[in-house]
TrEMBL record:
PANTHER family: METAL TRANSPORTER CNNM, UNEXTENDED PROTEIN. Residues 712-743 form a coiled coil. It comes from Steinernema hermaphroditum. It is a multi-pass membrane protein. This is CNNM transmembrane domain-containing protein.
Length: 750
């Protein structure tokens, strides 16, 4: 007979089946001629007539064959002093009066008494062994994480740079840690052995899911979580203090661990972790961050020096839009020098006039030390004398390469270009200071810097010397070309009644035009990338909305920006646009009183002028480019009107025909243009004589503005041809003159 229920306890030493009381079990009976069994009786006494359970073959047998029968059985707990249930068999008969026969085979008996549980060890000793194994499991688990997470290189670093205790710990652990695979195999083998032993011993103390739960909880909590959390932070100290235990278990597991470790060495190679530059840089960043999340100041230089090898020119360059440059035809007068000083730069790129993409020279501010601004040398002349080298690099050139070039001392500025097909586009500049700032990880600001950040263009919040006075001087009279004067006279006569011969004599008008032409020269400001200028001279403000004015302005060359209306609408005004016509209308309306008011002496004192001849503009006119204009104030017009009256009173009004005046103006311009410093070669016609001979006949009056512009264009073309012929000769003369002046200044000082 066999018990198939999992809830049964088992068999005692003599073969009695031990079951739990009142728990159904499935019983399988094996034998011969089982088909003749009619009934099975289970009794706790020697009398088969006192059954505890009765099993009818017809109703209770689930399987009933000749050699095998299956049925379910549930027995109550045995009475006191009774130890087994015995089986009795009743055979089938036609009359159903068979005899109950007891079976004395112990293998057919059942008992509900459980024998005392037997353990591997006495209970206290077994519990102590389990606790000891939990400690070993914790030790192996903690050492596996703590020791194996420390590489030999890290231990060497600790041994050389750690505290005295850390150096001692590292020196103790390092010899064992160098044999990484052997240490790992020994620790893992020991951990697996003790964990298995813990499970077995717990299973001996209890059974089922309880044993599984207790052993798993003990191993996870006391053998994994607690030791690993400790050894993550204190692994160096724990490993040093338990080095003896570690060596002992290496010795115990050596026969198994050594072959496995050698196999791992052959397959995986030696353990070696090298710190390249990037890893070392990131390691410094991760371990030297202050409370604000910023890199500590003392480590910025080290990180900056290492990052330098990963950066290229475009990462640190100053964009070309933010670079202060000068065209090579810029006149180095007082205003230009003042603007150069204002910007604070010591090296200024110089580009070919009209093409900012073509850098030709580098102007050093120290080159201006011995120059007199009144000499009006051009930038091209100064750069042609000094000839500083210009270094060009591509935008992807590494900074370490640029630094090596700068260290040679040939130049400390490089022009950054970007390939564009067969040509290159200028994108920015890189200086030695930019590279040093990348190494220091900070902006270097000296006493002359205006901008403290090349990326964000942050301006310095300090007070600098006020150099605006260079730009606020009165605009000097400008000498314009003869043809511009001719056309200006004709335009005034044709478009403004106030300049007709009724009021102003032609010769007087010609002198008025010649002596009142002004020029705003802001070529130095225009070099600031063409954007809004940081400095706008007061003289560039021709009219201001709401401010009284008594002057008439006629644009001759260049452009002005007009702002009008409440919406501040803006438009450009080019040549032959006029402003302040209200002043001229008031002049003609009050011409009878002009001879009795104002004199030449009150030309600059507005308080002494007549307010009835002024007006208040409802617009503003500002010059943002080089511009030449004719300015006629109320006082200058009155003086011209009075001069006309004086000439006519002297009886010379018949000499003022238009042809005579034109020829007179041309002769005056011819005489004034000739100077000893610019004499023309023998047998060479001057530009003005050449214009007189080759230019078409200039009509006395122009019907409209387009005809006036066409005439000026024709005259300019003739004069430009001659100027191009003399340009090279004049540049050479200026360079020789500059060389002579510098040598004289040097001899005087040294």
């Amino acid at each position: 007979m066999r018990d198939d229920d999992e809830l049964s306890f088992g068999y005692d030493p003599i073969g009695v089946c031990i079951i739990s009381p009142d728990v159904p079990i499935k019983v399988v009976v094996y034998g011969n001629r089982l088909e003749h069994v009619a009934q099975l009786i289970f009794t706790s006494t020697e009398n088969c007539s006192d059954p505890a359970r009765t099993i009818n073959a017809e109703n209770d047998f689930k399987v009933h064959f000749e050699h095998r029968a299956v049925f379910d059985l549930s027995l109550p707990a045995l009475p006191e002093n009774v130890h087994v249930y015995k089986m009795c068999v009743k055979q089938k008969t036609p009359t159903n009066d068979g005899i109950l026969l007891p079976i004395d085979d112990a293998r057919t008996w059942f008992t509900t008494e459980h024998p005392p549980r037997q353990h591997y060890l006495p209970l206290p000793i077994q519990i102590g062994v389990i606790a000891f194994f939990l400690v070993l499991s914790a030790l192996f688990s903690g050492l596996t994480l703590g020791l194996m997470s420390l590489t030999p290189m890290e231990l060497e670093l600790v041994q050389k740079s750690g505290s005295q205790k850390e150096q001692k710990y590292a020196a103790t652990i390092l010899p064992i840690r160098r044999k990484g695979n052997l240490l790992l195999c020994s620790l893992l083998l020991g951990n697996v052995i003790v964990n298995s032993a813990i499970s077995i011993l717990f299973g001996d103390l209890t059974s089922g899911f309880l044993a599984l739960f207790i052993s798993s909880a003990g191993i996870v909590i006391f053998g994994e979580i607690v030791p690993q959390s400790i050894c993550v932070k204190k692994g160096l100290a724990v490993g040093a203090y338990t080095i003896g235990v570690t060596k002992f278990f290496i010795f115990l597991t050596f026969p198994v661990a050594w072959p496995i470790s050698k196999l791992l060495d052959c397959l995986l190679g030696d353990e070696y972790v090298a710190y390249d530059r990037k890893r070392l840089m990131e390691l410094i960043k991760l371990n030297t961050v202050n409370q604000d999340g910023q890199l500590a100041e003392e480590f910025k230089i080290a990180v900056g020096a290492m990052e330098l090898y990963d950066k290229v020119g475009k990462d640190v360059m100053t964009r070309i839009e933010d670079v202060f440059m000068l065209p090579n035809n810029t006149i180095l007068n007082a205003k230009t020098v003042a603007e150069i000083v204002r910007t604070g730069y010591t090296r200024i790129p110089v580009y070919m006039t009209g093409d900012k993409n073509c850098i030709t020279d580098i102007l050093f501010v120290k080159d201006l030390a011995l120059l007199d601004p009144d000499d009006n040398f051009t930038v091209k002349t100064v750069c042609g004398y000094h000839q500083h080298p210009v270094k060009f690099v591509l935008e992807d050139t590494p900074l370490k390469v640029m630094l090596e070039e700068f260290k040679k001392g040939d130049c400390h500025m490089a022009i950054v270009n970007r390939p564009n097909g067969n040509s290159f586009d200028l994108v920015g500049i890189v200086t030695l200071e930019d590279i040093v700032e990348e190494i220091l990880q900070a902006e270097i600001v000296d006493e002359f810097d205006v901008v403290t950040d090349n990326v964000n263009r942050t301006r310095r919040k300090t007070v600098h010397r006020d150099l605006t006075k260079f730009f606020e001087k009165e605009v000097p009279d400008a000498s314009v070309s003869m043809q511009i004067q001719i056309v200006a006279v004709q335009w005034l006569v044709a478009n403004e009644p106030a300049f007709s011969e009724q009021y102003i004599d032609r010769n007087v008008l010609e002198r008025l035009v010649r002596t009142n032409c002004k020029k705003i020269d802001i070529s130095a400001l225009k070099a600031l990338t063409g954007k809004d200028f940081p400095v706008l001279p007061k003289t560039a403000k021709l009219f201001t909305k709401g401010e009284i004015s008594d002057r008439f302005i006629l644009i001759l060359e260049g452009r002005a920006v007009v702002t009008i209306g409440q919406d501040e609408m803006k438009f450009d005004a080019g040549p032959w646009h006029s402003f302040g016509n209200e002043v001229l209308r008031k002049m003609t309306q009050n011409y009878s009183t002009l001879s009795r008011s104002m004199s030449v002496a009150d030309g600059k004192d507005f308080s002494a002028r007549r307010p009835d001849l002024a007006f208040v503009p409802d617009y503003s006119v500002i010059i943002k480019d080089d511009c030449t204009y004719l300015e006629v104030t109320a006082s200058s017009y009155v003086n011209a009107y009075r001069a006309t009256l004086m000439q006519r009173e002297m009886g010379k009004g018949d000499l003022h025909s238009s042809n005579t005046s034109l020829n007179g103006l041309q002769e005056e311009m011819h005489i004034s243009k000739q100077s000893p410093a610019h004499k023309f070669p023998p047998n060479t016609r001057s530009p003005i004589r050449r214009i007189q001979e080759e230019a078409p006949v200039i009509p006395r009056l122009y019907a409209n503005l387009s005809e006036a512009r066409a005439a000026v264009k024709a005259l300019n073309r003739i004069e430009r041809d001659r100027r191009e012929e003399l340009e090279d000769m004049k540049d050479e003369e200026q360079i020789n003159l500059l060389r002579t002046k510098i040598e004289e200044e040097h001899d005087e000082k040294f």
